């Protein structure tokens, strides 16, 4: 069974907030912890105190890979919006010289402007060790972004 370390960073005010550390959690415990966080309340607190962002950082103790989910307080949407950063390396094709040459580059999985449901799904992929699915979603998002230019 995989085990994870978890750091939950919440915006600080004078009385409360800060970092909460949890060690050796199972995937189910980590998911329950993510679901139990009142993200909407953290969003309000983040805006009230104009402080640093709330984040949920999970590290796989076996592989030492990390996924960080950060709440975006300045979202223009009514729904919650997250940014996902990781140290998961992925090889992606990149076109150069007016699209005539394609070379492979090393990149790290990173998502911006992700809604809560997609964020939870990507967290599930990470917790279940389905890194190929996470990589494929990243490659698909990169491809969509390149088509929009």
List the helices and strands and how they pair.
Elements lengths: L3 E7 L7 E8 L1 H10 L2 H11 L5 E6 L5 E6 L9 E16 L4 E15 H12 L3 H17 L2
Helix pairs in contact: 1-3
Question: Could you explain the architecture of this structure?
Answer:
By secondary structure, this protein is an alpha+beta fold. It is built from four helices and six strands; from the N terminus they run ββααββββαα. The protein has a six-stranded antiparallel sheet. Helix 1 (27-36) packs antiparallel against helix 3. It is globular, with a radius of gyration of 17 Å.
The parts where pLDDT drops under 50 for at least 5 residues are none
Strand order in space, largest sheet: 2-1-3-4-5-6
Q: Let me know the average pLDDT.
A: 87
Q: Assign an overall shape.
A: globular
Helical run tally: 4
Helix/strand-derived category reads alpha+beta
What's the total number of strands?
6
Main pleated-sheet profile: 6 strands, antiparallel
The share of residues in extended strands comes to 35-45%
Helix content: 25-40%
What is the H-and-E element order?
Answer: EEHHEEEEHH
Give the end-to-end Cα distance, rounded to a whole number of Å. Answer: 43 Å
Task: Please state the CA-atom Rg, rounded to the nearest Å.
Answer: 17 Å
């Amino acid at each position: 069974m995989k085990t994870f370390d978890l750091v939950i960073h919440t915006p600080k005010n004078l009385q409360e907030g800060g970092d909460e550390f949890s060690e050796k959690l199972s995937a189910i415990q980590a998911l329950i912890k993510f679901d139990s966080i009142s993200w909407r309340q953290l969003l309000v607190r983040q805006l009230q105190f104009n402080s640093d962002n709330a984040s949920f950082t999970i590290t796989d103790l076996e592989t030492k890979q990390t996924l960080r989910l950060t709440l975006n307080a300045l979202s223009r949407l009514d729904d919650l919006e997250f940014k996902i950063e990781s140290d998961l390396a992925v090889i992606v094709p990149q076109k150069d010289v007016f699209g005539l040459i394609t070379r492979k580059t090393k990149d790290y999985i990173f998502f911006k402007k992700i809604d809560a449901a997609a964020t939870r799904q990507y967290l599930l992929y990470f917790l279940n060790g389905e890194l190929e699915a996470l990589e494929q979603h990243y490659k698909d998002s990169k491809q969509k972004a390149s088509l929009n230019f």
